[in-house]
Design goal:
Blueprint (H helix, E strand, L loop, with lengths): L2 E3 L7 E3 L1 E3 L8 E2 L3 E3 L3
Antiparallel strand pairs: 1-3, 2-5, 3-4
Amino acid sequence: GDLKTTVTASVDGYFRYSFAGTSTTPAVNATGDFIDVQ
């Protein structure tokens, strides 16, 4: 889809993602989201 991470999720930690938006969905820039890579 249009969602892309700004860094590769290869380790536990925080990552940011950016959504460019579409004609029906506004652009989103999330704050850090914690991920726990298994």
